[in-house]
């Protein structure tokens, strides 16, 4: 094969060739790239011309200057081709060679192009034009275009035409629009006497395609008052309009009862119409009638293409967009208005098509000896004829080529030669137009060469990867790809026409090296590149569509993951535009990449995209934000005022993404200028006008408010003032009543009529009344103050029926409706007689009895008989009354006080007065069940317990026996099994309890019932939650204690735990006790007490000092109280039970002893002053008492007492060696000082630190108060008497 000589291609040639081949040859892309970017390695590539710009297939319009002051408007007829060598251009006009140079400077050709520039258009420029571009390799042919002059003629001069139409009837205003090209658009306007123009927009008024104006029905508002109706024609190309055909319209009014007309056809599309595929078609159906007919469209035998259908002119025009062949068929419009017979019109639509290519011919670049084919197929309706052009002439007129044949719409050229290079064009034509395309075949001979070798490429898994390998050569090189010595073919591998390798759904195993081989019969080339595959980026948490009301916050969440070696960033886009968070301060991107929009407005609505990207890929997810706001205020467009009504019209100004639900019309008047009232609330959202009623003699101002689900809009602007003429009143006062406020008068009352209902000046009331016995004439009084609401008529008999009426009147006359007569009564007096024989019939239960009485005579009532009142009370309660109907003579009276004496009586009553009472009946009610407790509270102690507190029932209804407590779990709206707290509380005075054994972090419903001998009363419940299992600090617990009766030589201490509800931390769910002997180091612990708040510590040795403390527990957390020392009394310590029948003797004994003690004290003082001593001290030393000083009285401490016992001391408190705990102060009424059987639990020893070297002695007493107390004890206990004088002297000796 002969080698093509090498030569350098100029840069302009490269650019020209690149533009041409990029558009029409995928194969030549690598060729052009080589020509532009390589050095002389590529050979010279020449080609036939190719059209890149050409005229349209339809027409080109131009405009000729018509006035001397009008400038010429140049226009172009485009033609531009690319090829090598540079092509030359020629033009044909109307089938003949067109020599544009003969037109002086008016027509020129752009340099380097074939485009004609007509700077001064003239009428002679009209014609059919076609361009040819030719070089030595072929001739390219452009589209053939008709150049036409655009013009718009004027209307004929005509006088204004007056037309009179009947109100309610259809009407046509004709228009004769002027000629023009393109066909002018015709519309109608209103022109006032000063020449100002106003558009017409009404559902009743329509302009048809021929320019006539149709009124579906005429209203009085359509009459020409200060304007004309004018027909106008507009040329969009010339941007020019002209006016003509003025009409002055008069409207003859008719009564509303006659204003009804059956539907009638005014203008419709012809029954058979034609449309072209791809264009829009309008089907018309203008129907007249009163009321305005409703028009519906349907397609026979099928559905309307809803995605391409629009309804114009308020439904009178059916527009089908982008018409398709499938749209052929019959379309019906049906019209009805509830008057007469509905009408229908049918239109048959036929669709034709301008030819278009289904298979286009393509540019062919091939080597000598190869075979090329030009395919050309087109569709049209009717079917197009296909003709071929070769180098600007019909194929049948071109030179013969034995290697070329025409077969079924395609040209085949075999065994290509260099001289086969040339242009071929395909033309498809039918009666509606044509389509044409010019291409070429270029015969080349070049060796295979890789112009863009593979590179090192990185991608992510799952994507489709293209490894670049652009080749150049003629014949077209064969491209192969090799990886690991294997050729890649089929499956996920595809070699593109221009040499690139496409790998679909890349995986990690695809990473590696790839080699591209290119080869043709003139040579070969190969290059290698690599592929790296990483993990793809993906969205984990996708944003979701969001709908929010304005001024609220919208939040979109988004998170993503990517390959760890890549840098991941997340951006947010709004409507495909990246959000600038610095300028959009209401938009905030949080640390978790969520997007927050503060105070969202309607303008924030849109599509928001979360874009996660790395250096290699990206992933995105979209969500739509709809911000809904109140509607914009409607625009009030007009108001028509009549004597009895006003018609408002308005225009919606936007619903802010939440559909309008309805409109509200409001008004105010000169009577109430600062108050807006509702004229009509629910005007349908589809309406844009509405008629409301008005009252005479008022100045009205109206406004309109739109409402959607978000709320009401701001009001529209105010309307003009509507002033109505005066008239008689249309109504009379409401709520007319007759009654008396004294036994001897009649008070007539009514509701004053507001000024808006006066209808004229000098408004007043006429009040009339008479006895309703048929004997009296009407009495009359005029009330001139319209604000007045009553009239008092004195000196009337007691409780007599009257007929009453009140009429409104003004200066125009009385109201036009008759006043309503009502019956009233004069004043009432107290009933004269009490019911007799008031008797208790039976007792039903502990709070209900049945009583009876005799009815009273009617003449004693002296008023409207309302019924009977049964009154009941107790000695401690106020009187309560129960009402019964006027026909009752027996009744059950409920809610008496149980367990008490109740008193009952009955009296009759009328509307204004109570009668005298009957005799009083007494009944003692039996005990009943109690009412609910008061102030029931539960305090969480920890994870598993509550501390319950309550108050006794306000109504015990008997003798309280105690309380029952129940509890059940609360799980959402479900209640668990009802459980009973054990043991029951049998002490009626107890108001505290612990509820234990519960689950942590659980909500409970807790019930409490008080009980008497009759059973449980009404329950009271609360709900509370236990603490969860989270570890928490506990408040330091507190406790009190008391010593129980000594049994079997063993002491027992009862410890009462006091949960610390006021401390910092939880009180704890339960507790246990720790104790030890004084001086020992190790505490002993009791078992945890889970259910009660006290615990008995048994097995203690009497006469010993112990250290006690309480440990509060909650789960695994514990808190220890302050320790306290407690002394256990000896075994023989007396237990005292004071006698109950010797109170007088006991008081006398105390007085005598007090006197005796006073004498002994004096003796003791005298002996002390003499310095005398007794041998008590030595005896104490012998028994181990070593801690007394010689001089003075030894002081002692007495612990603080509380109701519940001793309170634990501070941790740094040093206990005394002696304790004074047997004072009679401790033996008062406090129940905690006695055991359950009433025995005394006082303490008689001293607390003493044990000495390991000495036995523990019984301490002596060192206080005068102690002596006094013990003497009283000695006297009170039979069989245990000691000589008090001897005892006291011993103590004095000790001191």
From TrEMBL:
Report the locations given in the UniProt record: Cell junction, Septate junction; Cell membrane; Membrane
Instruction: Say yes or no: keyword Aminoacyl-tRNA synthetase present.
Output: no
Instruction: Mark the transmembrane ranges.
Output: 1145-1166
List, alphabetically, the Pfam families matched. Answer: Bravo_FIGEY, fn3, I-set, Ig_3
Boundaries of every Ig-like domain copy: 55-153, 263-350, 355-442, 447-534, 537-626
Recorded GO MF terms? cell-cell adhesion mediator activity
Q: What is its main location?
A: other
What keywords were assigned to this record?
A: Cell adhesion, Cell membrane, Disulfide bond, Glycoprotein, Immunoglobulin domain, Membrane, Repeat, Signal, Transmembrane, Transmembrane helix
Please give the InterPro entries that the UniProt record associates with this protein.
Answer: FN3_dom (IPR003961), Ig-like_dom (IPR007110), Ig_I-set (IPR013098), Ig_sub (IPR003599), Ig_sub2 (IPR003598), Neurofascin/L1/NrCAM_C (IPR026966)
GO CC annotation: axon; plasma membrane; septate junction
Could you tell me the membrane topology recorded for this protein?
A: Single-pass type I membrane protein
Q: A GO term (biological process) for this protein?
A: establishment of glial blood-brain barrier
* Residue span, Fibronectin type-III domain: 630-727, 732-829, 834-928, 929-1032, 1036-1131
Q: Is Disulfide bond included in the keywords of this UniProt record?
A: yes
* Region spans: Disordered: 1193-1222
Recorded superkingdom = Eukaryota
| CDD domains with a match to the protein in the record | FN3 (cd00063)
This one is known as Neuroglian
Name its species. Answer: Allacma fusca
